[in-house]
């Protein structure tokens, strides 16, 4: 088995009773704690018109996190390219890489990260953003590359900064792109596990070596909640279930405390969907999650990195979950 690196994704959610500033402060505190645990990287999402999330100005949040940490890599999970001109993205991330060398990641997504009405208000054009994604990824690679390979328009100070690019995906489309360009691939298994196995297989089998990578680099993002017992983890995971149901209902409510009566809060269909999503997540005691992760690898093949996202209401319980996950991944790597 390949040694697995461990990282984390944060959507910067607002917990019930919190302000926007509280959520941003929590984002920084979690980054500082995960840095102490030697997590590989800490990524921040991009979402718009979501009253329960504070992750709309992703580049600003990345800079803020970099300023309050020392060594952990901080990046975007991801920058949604249909919303942004590649030149501006390169200038922003090139500037951060200048101030914080070797610590900035640029994960790139082809979706707008919002509903279609909001996307229309965000987009530089109304139709072509998704279809131009491959060309725009190539533009960014050029902007961050050496001066002698660039044209007249350059993204100073991004030139020659070589900010690492990662292709994000929730379907097989981006797997083809990442493989063809020889870039690392990140699959969003935390919210779209349906095509994960196919996407991973496509990426690995079609991968073409590049100046960036000589072999595939596969990151999988999964929901992870680890506690002392399976029962405690499942109780904590009732918060995750409420988050997901809130999204499907279009309510976008703040992160709710856990409940012993999840079935009473949801419709029968919602409860079944919540159970299915929980079964696809790394939820349980350390022993249970270790077995789930081993089974995941046996079914889907080796991964290079696990990126965990953890919707837990209590911040101490959330940090404890990350500590336990870190411990069991270290045990797997050392066996």
UniProtKB/TrEMBL annotation:
InterPro entries documented for this protein: Bact_Lucif_Oxidored, CmoO-like, Luciferase-like_dom, Luciferase-like_sf
GO CC field: cytosol
One GO MF term: oxidoreductase activity, acting on paired donors, with incorporation or reduction of molecular oxygen
Record field: transmembrane: none
Domain Luciferase-like: 18-295
UniProt-listed Pfam families: Bac_luciferase
Highest rank taxon of the organism: Bacteria
SUPFAM superfamilies (UniProt xref): Bacterial luciferase-like (SSF51679)
Gene3D superfamilies for the chain: Luciferase-like domain (3.20.20.30)
Family: To bacterial alkanal monooxygenase alpha and beta chains.
Protein name: LLM class flavin-dependent oxidoreductase
């Amino acid at each position: 088995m390949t040694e697995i690196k461990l990282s984390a994704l944060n959507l910067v959610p607002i917990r019930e009773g919190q302000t926007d500033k509280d959520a941003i402060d929590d984002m920084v505190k979690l980054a500082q704690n995960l840095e102490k645990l030697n997590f590989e990287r800490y990524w921040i999402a991009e979402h718009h018109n979501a009253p329960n999330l504070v992750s709309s100005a992703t580049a600003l949040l990345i800079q803020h996190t970099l300023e309050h940490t020392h060594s952990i890599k901080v990046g975007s999970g991801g920058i949604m390219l249909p919303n942004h001109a590649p030149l501006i993205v390169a200038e922003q991330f090139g500037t951060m890489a200048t101030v914080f060398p070797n610590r900035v990641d640029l994960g790139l997504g082809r979706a707008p990260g919002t509903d279609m009405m909001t996307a229309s208000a965000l987009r530089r054009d109304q139709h072509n953003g998704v279809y131009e994604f491959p060309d725009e990824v190539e533009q960014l690679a050029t902007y961050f590359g050496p001066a002698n390979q660039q044209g007249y328009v350059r993204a100073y100070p991004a030139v020659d900064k070589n900010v690492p690019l990662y292709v994000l995906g929730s379907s097989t489309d981006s797997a083809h792109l990442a493989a063809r360009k020889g870039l690392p691939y990140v699959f969003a298994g935390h919210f779209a596990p349906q095509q994960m196995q196919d996407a991973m297989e496509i990426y690995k089998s079609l991968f073409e070596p590049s100046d960036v990578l000589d072999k595939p680099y596969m990151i999988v993002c999964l929901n992870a909640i680890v506690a002392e017992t399976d029962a405690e983890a499942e109780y904590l995971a009732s918060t995750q279930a409420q988050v997901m149901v809130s999204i499907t209902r279009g309510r976008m409510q703040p992160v709710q405390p856990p409940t012993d009566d999840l079935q009473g809060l949801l419709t029968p269909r919602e409860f079944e969907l919540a159970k299915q999503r929980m079964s696809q997540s790394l939820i349980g005691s350390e022993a249970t999650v270790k077995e789930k992760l081993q089974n995941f690898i046996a079914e889907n093949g080796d991964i290079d990195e696990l990126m965990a996202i953890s919707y837990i209401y209590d911040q101490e319980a959330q940090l404890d979950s990350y500590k336990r996950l870190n411990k069991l991944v270290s045990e797997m790597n050392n066996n």
